[in-house]
Write a structure and sequence with these properties.
InterPro entries: Ig-like_dom, Ig-like_dom_sf, Ig-like_fold, Ig_sub, Ig_sub2, IgSF_CEA-related. This protein has a 5-stranded mixed beta sheet with strand order 2-8-7-4-5, with no helix packed on it. Strands 1-3-6 form a 3-stranded antiparallel beta sheet, with no helix packed on it. Helix content is about 0%, strand content about 50%. The protein is built from no helices and 12 strands. It starts with 10 loop residues before the first strand and ends in a 12-residue tail after the last strand.
Protein backbone atom coordinates (compact mmCIF):
# COMPACT_ATOMS: atom_id res chain seq x y z
CA UNK A 1 0.00 0.00 0.00
CA UNK A 2 1.35 3.41 -0.90
CA UNK A 3 1.37 6.53 1.24
CA UNK A 4 -1.65 8.85 0.90
CA UNK A 5 -1.17 11.70 -1.54
CA UNK A 6 -2.41 15.25 -1.25
CA UNK A 7 -3.86 16.95 -4.29
CA UNK A 8 -4.08 20.74 -4.28
CA UNK A 9 -6.30 22.31 -6.92
CA UNK A 10 -5.21 25.82 -7.77
CA UNK A 11 -7.87 28.34 -8.70
CA UNK A 12 -8.65 32.00 -8.68
CA UNK A 13 -8.48 34.74 -7.91
CA UNK A 14 -12.26 35.05 -7.78
CA UNK A 15 -14.81 37.20 -5.94
CA UNK A 16 -12.44 40.05 -5.14
CA UNK A 17 -14.05 42.52 -2.73
CA UNK A 18 -12.93 45.64 -0.92
CA UNK A 19 -14.26 46.16 2.59
CA UNK A 20 -15.99 48.51 3.11
CA UNK A 21 -17.46 48.02 -0.38
CA UNK A 22 -19.10 51.45 -0.70
CA UNK A 23 -17.77 54.88 -1.54
CA UNK A 24 -16.61 56.86 1.47
CA UNK A 25 -16.59 60.55 2.27
CA UNK A 26 -13.77 61.50 4.66
CA UNK A 27 -12.63 64.76 6.18
CA UNK A 28 -8.95 65.75 6.05
CA UNK A 29 -7.30 64.00 9.03
CA UNK A 30 -9.73 61.05 9.14
CA UNK A 31 -8.43 57.47 8.97
CA UNK A 32 -8.89 55.39 5.82
CA UNK A 33 -8.78 51.62 6.20
CA UNK A 34 -9.48 49.25 3.31
CA UNK A 35 -9.26 45.48 3.23
CA UNK A 36 -9.25 43.22 0.16
CA UNK A 37 -10.77 39.73 0.27
CA UNK A 38 -10.48 37.10 -2.44
CA UNK A 39 -10.98 33.40 -3.08
CA UNK A 40 -7.71 31.95 -4.38
CA UNK A 41 -5.47 28.88 -4.00
CA UNK A 42 -2.69 29.56 -3.42
CA UNK A 43 -3.13 32.90 -1.64
CA UNK A 44 -2.64 35.74 -4.14
CA UNK A 45 -0.20 38.60 -4.26
CA UNK A 46 -1.85 42.00 -3.82
CA UNK A 47 -1.31 45.37 -5.42
CA UNK A 48 -3.07 48.61 -4.44
CA UNK A 49 -3.68 51.37 -6.98
CA UNK A 50 -4.92 54.94 -6.60
CA UNK A 51 -6.34 56.31 -9.86
CA UNK A 52 -4.47 53.51 -11.69
CA UNK A 53 -1.09 54.44 -10.14
CA UNK A 54 0.73 51.81 -8.05
CA UNK A 55 0.81 52.69 -4.35
CA UNK A 56 3.69 50.25 -3.68
CA UNK A 57 1.83 48.70 -0.74
CA UNK A 58 1.80 44.89 -0.75
CA UNK A 59 -0.69 42.94 1.33
CA UNK A 60 -4.45 42.76 1.50
CA UNK A 61 -4.95 45.86 3.67
CA UNK A 62 -4.37 49.53 2.92
CA UNK A 63 -4.46 52.15 5.66
CA UNK A 64 -3.82 55.88 5.84
CA UNK A 65 -3.83 57.17 9.41
CA UNK A 66 -4.66 60.76 8.39
CA UNK A 67 -6.00 61.40 4.90
CA UNK A 68 -5.27 64.56 2.96
CA UNK A 69 -6.85 66.04 -0.16
CA UNK A 70 -4.34 64.17 -2.34
CA UNK A 71 -5.89 60.87 -1.16
CA UNK A 72 -9.07 61.52 -3.22
CA UNK A 73 -9.82 59.00 -5.91
CA UNK A 74 -10.53 55.48 -7.01
CA UNK A 75 -8.76 52.78 -4.96
CA UNK A 76 -8.26 49.40 -6.63
CA UNK A 77 -7.12 46.11 -5.15
CA UNK A 78 -5.55 43.78 -7.71
CA UNK A 79 -5.14 40.12 -6.66
CA UNK A 80 -2.70 37.98 -8.68
CA UNK A 81 -2.38 34.19 -8.43
CA UNK A 82 1.17 33.19 -9.43
CA UNK A 83 0.15 29.57 -10.12
CA UNK A 84 -2.81 30.25 -12.40
CA UNK A 85 -1.35 33.45 -13.87
CA UNK A 86 -4.73 35.13 -13.42
CA UNK A 87 -5.62 38.42 -11.78
CA UNK A 88 -8.85 40.06 -10.67
CA UNK A 89 -9.66 43.43 -9.14
CA UNK A 90 -12.19 45.47 -7.20
CA UNK A 91 -12.44 49.24 -6.75
CA UNK A 92 -13.99 51.79 -4.41
CA UNK A 93 -14.12 55.60 -4.56
CA UNK A 94 -12.89 57.78 -1.70
CA UNK A 95 -13.70 61.50 -1.52
CA UNK A 96 -11.77 63.70 0.94
CA UNK A 97 -12.97 67.19 1.81
CA UNK A 98 -11.19 70.03 3.58
CA UNK A 99 -12.17 71.73 6.79
CA UNK A 100 -14.23 74.39 5.01
CA UNK A 101 -15.71 72.45 2.13
CA UNK A 102 -18.65 70.09 1.91
CA UNK A 103 -20.26 68.32 -1.03
CA UNK A 104 -23.25 69.90 -2.69
CA UNK A 105 -26.52 68.01 -2.96
CA UNK A 106 -26.22 64.47 -4.41
CA UNK A 107 -27.91 65.61 -7.63
CA UNK A 108 -24.92 67.91 -8.15
CA UNK A 109 -22.37 65.11 -7.77
CA UNK A 110 -20.44 64.05 -10.83
CA UNK A 111 -20.29 60.45 -11.93
CA UNK A 112 -17.16 59.53 -13.86
CA UNK A 113 -17.17 55.93 -15.07
CA UNK A 114 -18.11 53.90 -12.01
CA UNK A 115 -16.60 56.45 -9.63
CA UNK A 116 -18.71 58.83 -7.58
CA UNK A 117 -17.10 62.27 -7.51
CA UNK A 118 -18.89 64.82 -5.35
CA UNK A 119 -18.81 68.52 -6.14
CA UNK A 120 -17.67 70.69 -3.22
CA UNK A 121 -18.62 74.15 -1.99
CA UNK A 122 -17.02 76.19 0.75
CA UNK A 123 -18.96 76.58 4.01
CA UNK A 124 -17.97 77.26 7.60
CA UNK A 125 -16.99 74.17 9.64
CA UNK A 126 -19.85 71.86 8.66
CA UNK A 127 -19.43 68.10 8.44
CA UNK A 128 -21.50 66.60 5.60
CA UNK A 129 -23.46 63.39 5.61
CA UNK A 130 -22.87 60.85 2.86
CA UNK A 131 -26.05 59.94 1.05
CA UNK A 132 -26.39 57.04 -1.32
CA UNK A 133 -27.81 57.95 -4.67
CA UNK A 134 -28.52 55.04 -6.91
Amino acid sequence: MSDPQTLTVTHGPENVKIIPPVSQLLQVGDKLSLSCTVESVPAPQYQWLLNNSDLNRPGNTYTIEKVSLRDNGNYTCVAYNTDTGLSAKASVSIAVYGMNAVPMQPDDALVMGNAWCPTFVSVPQARPRLKSHH
